[in-house]
Design a protein that fits this description.
Two copies of one chain form a homodimer.
Chain A: H1 9-17, H2 26-39, H3 45-52, E1 57-61, H4 69-84, E2 88-92, H5 99-107, E3 113-117, H6 123-131, E4 136-141, E5 149-152, H7 156-168, E6 173-179, H8 185-199, E7 205-211, H9 215-223, H10 225-228, E8 232-234, H11 238-250, E9 260-264, E10 278-283, H12 287-299, E11 307-309, E12 312-316
Parallel strand pairs in A: 1-2, 1-3, 3-4, 4-5, 5-11, 6-7, 6-8, 8-9, 9-10
Antiparallel strand pairs in A: 10-12
Chain A binds a DNA duplex through residues 1, 7-14, 17, 19, 21-25, 28, 43-44, 46-53.
Protein name (chains A, B): LacI family DNA-binding transcriptional regulator
GO molecular function, one term (chains A, B): DNA binding
Pfam families (chains A, B): LacI, Peripla_BP_3
DNA sequence: TTGAAAGCGCTACCAA
DNA sequence: TTGGTAGCGCTTTCAA
């Protein structure tokens, strides 16, 4: 930069980085700072990390569907916590590359850590990332991946809680909404499976109900409701639950007498309906905890891989069941 | 990399980049590709863009509050569209740095374009970014910033539409909810101002109503509602509107007879309430359009700055007003 | 206290 | 058709 501002590039580096191993005279410091301000000099992160051989970048692939309430808040908290630990968080918008191929794209940025929600990253992908210098790979999803730390989030437990609750309340013919919106399979499949498991070996039965997130689709489902002979429904989440509950009520089906309805996510809005919506509350790990896991892993890449169950699910019983 | 795999680094570069100016024999290509796969070689993006002098990175600062439905979808669409144009989208989690300081942090990454939502970036910041090589800076907010392209999103028009609608329907004493949650001022202030402007010079009046996003806060407001003597309320958005409407109904206030309620954002859930929630529908530009604006600006940085009004607001009249 | 120079991984030019 | 090499901006070691 401003070697036109009197000194050598080395000196500039010393001054701007406050290198303690080297003493620079006050007048020189001042001149450097002044020149930097004047020229609007900003160091070049790529050059720096190229030289250093590592970065402080934590890469998180952007979700392939717009993040929901819960995940959005979680991500935000995480970002903040990592920032406090002096990491730079980068959400990388991977278009549609499948798992291990996406890993290559991420690896090009040479992040110090990668945090991958969902399935799709295999042991191959983890290996690519590690070889390219990532000191920590953390997956957040239903199962651990070889070579990576894992935050185990099994959405089946959400369905399981819902199913068990409905069964306990005396319901036997249970519908499970599966959103038609693509990209949600990741959550909806395990939730459905969880309900199945909860009812396995009992006299209860499970019926899969595809549903689009619009009033028409809900009305159509409601119109054929009595034909389905269901006495309860787990509606994937609170939003679908609200939609379906309204459609059922409009079709003259009384909630919870004729059909019990339960959602998930414990949104505030669910409490506003009448009857108030029962729901499965989901506890996500705090962003701070996850940030600390990442930091630990980065500082000591040799440490044994951690795997934490990290999704707490519990029923909040209100009036709709 | 694999100069241990037989050839020179230059040849590797040629092969992997499919450099057309140079012919490489088929056997050599094969050997290079094989070695690359075997070693799990991934090019180093930083080194590449250092050498090239530019990157294809579009930087978007991550929002300081978890993104809402509308913005989340917009961002997602934008990311996809930019991806199609072969840009890499990076959301940079700037912690709490104020505007122009944050610009320096962004500039370190030498993005080819920067897309900044909200206020907070000043002409200084724009200058820093451009000097550091950004070929396009696009702000998305209420007013244009010197040196940057602008997508003009004036949330005052949202409030204005709501205010005018309520006035037309014969309402005169109008409350405006202002969320207590921090980080929302960016939107709530202009919306409030818009209502004020709509009623300016009429016999209507505007009352500011702070409200937290929880049932207690809503109940407290509802309890003192009659004392406020209002006949209508614009509730910031649909979520606050749903919350408040329920609290008012629980307090025995009839909607819309005694008090009209209108929200904003046109969420699907608002249609599920009874009475159905009137709302201000907000049209955001499509992600594709914005992506094309960015691309144009990058290809021709000399072109005159574009400024587009980009927020359409129109009332969707349902039953609550 | 400061400067010269090497080298991080990559690509583009020139020579072989 | 391939290889050698300079140089992108930075930090760090070594010398002055």
């Amino acid at each position: 930069m401003a070697r036109l501002a009197g000194v050598s590039r080395a000196t500039v580096s010393y001054v701007l980085n406050n290198t303690r191993a080297v003493r620079i005279s006050e007048p020189t410091r001042r001149r450097v700072h002044e020149a930097a301000r004047e020229l609007g000099y900003v160091p070049h992160a790529a050059a720096r990390s190229l030289r250093a051989g590592h970065s402080r970048m934590v890469l998180i692939p952007a979700p392939s569907v717009p993040a929901g309430r819960l995940y959005g808040r979680f991500l935000h908290e995480l970002q903040w916590a990592l920032g406090r630990l002096d990491y730079t968080v980068v959400q990388h918008g991977t278009i549609g590359l499948p798992g291990d191929e996406a890993a290559r794209a991420w690896a090009e940025l040479r992040p110090v850590a990668v945090l991958v929600p969902g399935t799709g990253l295999g042991p191959q992908g983890v290996a690519v990332l590690k070889r390219s210098g990532a000191r920590a790979v953390v997956t957040v999803g239903p199962e651990a991946v070889e070579g990576a730390h894992a935050l185990l989030m099994d959405h089946a437990s959400v369905g399981h809680q819902a199913g068990a609750h409905l069964y306990e309340r005396g319901r036997r013919r249970i519908g499970v909404v599966v959103p038609e919106e693509s990209g949600l399979d990741m959550f909806s499949r395990p939730r459905l499976e969880g309900v199945r498991r909860a009812l396995d070996g009992t006299d209860g039965s499970v019926t899969e109900l595809p549903l689009g997130y619009d009033e028409d689709s809900a009305a159509r489902l409601a119109a054929r409701w009595r034909g389905l002979g269901l006495d309860a429904v787990f509606a994937y989440n609170d939003e679908y639950a609200m939609l379906l509950m309204r459609a059922l009520q409009d079709a003259g089906i009384s909630i919870p007498e004729e059909t019990a309805v339960i959602g998930a996510d414990d949104l505030m809005l669910g409490r506003l309906l009448r009857p108030r919506l029962s729901t499965v509350h989901i506890d996500l790990p705090s962003g701070r905890d996850l940030a600390e896991l990442v930091d630990r892993a980065v500082r000591d890449p040799g440490a044994p891989l951690e795997r934490h169950p990290a999704l707490g699910a519990r029923v909040v019983h209100r009036e709709s069941t």
